[in-house]
Amino acid sequence: MLLWLSRHANCLGLVCNANSGLFCALRSRHSMSFGNSIFLFFCLFWKTMDCIVLADRTVFVQVFDLSSVKPSDFVRYGLGCLERLADQGDNCAKDIRANLRIMVAGGDGTVGWVLGCLQELNKLKREPVPPTGIIPLGTGNDLARSFGWGGSFPFGWRSAVKRYLNKAVSASVVHLDSWQAVIRMPEGEITELPHALKKAEPADQLEFSKASGSELTEKASCYKGVFYNYLSIGMDAQVAYGFHHLRDEKPYLAQGPVANKLIYAGYSCTQGWFCTPCTASPQLRGLRNILRLYIKRANCSEWEQIQMPSSVRSLVVLNLYNYGSGRHPWGDLKPDYLEKKGFVEAHSDDGLIEIFGLKEGWHASFVMAELIKAKHIAQAAAIKFEMRGGEWDRAYVQMDGEPWKQPLIQDQSTILEINKVPYHSRMINGDS
């Protein structure tokens, strides 16, 4: 349909008198049946392109299926078409482009995919970047929860869709920090690359080398990715990695959220997350045996090493208030505690990111049940992990739910550096 829009761009101004636009993105082949049902609902009642009335205004609505149209194609062709029409003097196209909003029906991964493609508009100076709202169709839906769209989609979804779209065109816009993770390996490669991570281009590698003050050798490799919710290293990522592989190999075992949670819990036990003492095996010791943590505090250019407790077996870098299907592991901290620790109240647009630790599975379970708080470690404007092999030849990392196995080199450091992306993502506030 984006191809149709591109070919028939000259007709848009003749059939539409709208002064704002709403592009709805969803996967018809979503793992939950809602995705296909909502797509059919859009097509039957509003077509894939139409002008309808939402929140007392005429809105140009276009629906596209992420199963067949990538968000990058939408940015290139869909928005490119509107921009060409606007440049040719089409006032309707100009108003739609200026007031355009995006509604994504999906989970956190789908939303992050769309946000990542929209970031290209900032790089190309093609402002304004359309703000994004969410119809929550995923399992955790922490992005949707954080911006007032709820943690699940209601069963009375036909009437709910109209309510969501009315909010989408009328609600206020807020900001979200996004963070770039860069991995520099002295040699070797990541064999199973997750979607969230890409091999850096030579120009990017040169830029990263200059920023870090160290040159990459011919054997070295460099990867980069952007996350919006969290990045974690350690036992939780190892469990997630095993769970994802088991689900891919035996998809019939994962038939829904309840089955997924049971499998996840069982896999946690087999990996020693619950049952093995932290000192029982070299493979299960605390992270500080292989990892050094450095941070830059707000308004500071120098790296500061942070000592990690020996009991920490999972380290989580968190951007949002919500984590793990609406849990709050960082918590609502009292002013006297904030002052004592040198922290400030956490927000998703403050240019700071929170670091906390989880010990063993029981500790993590109590944290996720919100009976206790996680181990608060630091609050930072930038983070650097220095990982070195020895008894361990790998670490496990996950970024916004996508885990991978990170090779480690004995006596050589693998660097994972996290810095804030210089521009915010724009989100539609579902609570407003």
UniProtKB/TrEMBL annotation:
Pfam families the record matches: DAGK_acc, DAGK_cat
DAGKc domain sequence ranges: 83-185
Domain of life: Eukaryota
SUPFAM superfamilies per UniProt: NAD kinase/diacylglycerol kinase-like
GO molecular function: ATP binding; ATP-dependent diacylglycerol kinase activity
Record's keyword annotation contains Transferase: yes
Reactions this protein catalyses: a 1,2-diacyl-sn-glycerol + ATP = a 1,2-diacyl-sn-glycero-3-phosphate + ADP + H(+)
PANTHER family: DIACYLGLYCEROL KINASE, EYE-SPECIFIC DIACYLGLYCEROL KINASE
Protein name: Diacylglycerol kinase
UniProt organism field: Triticum turgidum subsp. durum
Classification lineage: Eukaryota, Viridiplantae, Streptophyta, Embryophyta, Tracheophyta
